[in-house]
Amino acid sequence: MSDVFDDRRRALEEEYFKRRDRESLEKLREAMREEARGRGEETATLQCPRCNGRLHESGFDEVRIDRCDKCHGIWLDAGELEHIIAQENAPGRWLRVLWPGRTNE
Prior knowledge:
50% helix
């Protein structure tokens, strides 16, 4: 019986740290944006881990993904892939795709 509670406790801890990581990353990105605005530049971007291109943010199913302007690679932050998979497996997903704005959800 204690195994169930231990598993649940570990799952809650993992979720907590994932959330903290996402919040920290978002604060870092916002600081980079503010710094770039202060210099009068465009939105600050990160360097692509694969090539020397720059990563630009775009949205996909309420997730901010980073896409390289040279190699067109897509980079996800911690927890974003799980969020996309959860959205794909959500009930009524295909109905919302086919008829956006026509469902009660």
